Amino acid sequence: MRNTVLSPSPHQKTIMTAAGPIYLRSHCSPLFIQELEPDSGMRAFTRLPEHEHALLLQIAEREDTMLTIAYTPAGTIVGHIALCPVDVWWQNLEAAYEIGLEVSSNWRQLGIAHQLMQLVFAETAYEEVIVLGMGLYWHWDMASLGLEPFGYREMLERFCAAYGFTEYLTSEPNIRMHPANIFLARLGKNAKQALVKQFFDGLLRSDTLPGL
């Protein structure tokens, strides 16, 4: 990310759940992540918890990312939100992040995802940037909820809408791979107009049709 506007200061919070206390911490360092271990249900992005832990370490090591973790008093990671640089399709956006969210399959229905989102978006710096959400159905754990792809898509849209995300139509290649995929974006209320224009210009551009 060429323009990192997010504060490096960690924010911490303790929440009480039906399964016991959970700690939340933002702006996690690599050393902090090394001290924790992933829950067995952390596998949405890499399929194996140990690979998930390695991925979180890589994210924490970068200066252009922000990692927020939910973990138990025993030091087990049960959820996270990662804000990372956008992919090549959106590389012209000068102040934008892509969000990734996961809660362990063993720790769902406890409000952890909502608490993570609340902690992250309590930071006023997010009102200056654009946050993109790529809802790709092959990452979704639909079986545990008994949902089909479009049912999960609807749930995801409702969840994200509570934190200022809106669905936008886009020609982005990954979104176009399946009709259940969804593209969401949160435009910070203080985002510069030039940035917002860049965003809308990029929604429906084409790599094959001149002028689009």
Automatic annotation (TrEMBL):
<protein>
    <submittedName>
        <fullName>Acetyltransferase (AcuA)</fullName>
    </submittedName>
</protein>
<dbReference type="Pfam" id="PF00583">
    <property type="entry name" value="Acetyltransf_1"/>
</dbReference>
<keyword id="KW-0808">Transferase</keyword>
<dbReference type="GO" id="GO:0016747">
    <property type="term" value="F:acyltransferase activity, transferring groups other than amino-acyl groups"/>
</dbReference>
<feature type="domain" description="N-acetyltransferase">
    <location>
        <begin position="50"/>
        <end position="121"/>
    </location>
</feature>
<dbReference type="InterPro" id="IPR016181">
    <property type="entry name" value="Acyl_CoA_acyltransferase"/>
</dbReference>
<dbReference type="InterPro" id="IPR000182">
    <property type="entry name" value="GNAT_dom"/>
</dbReference>
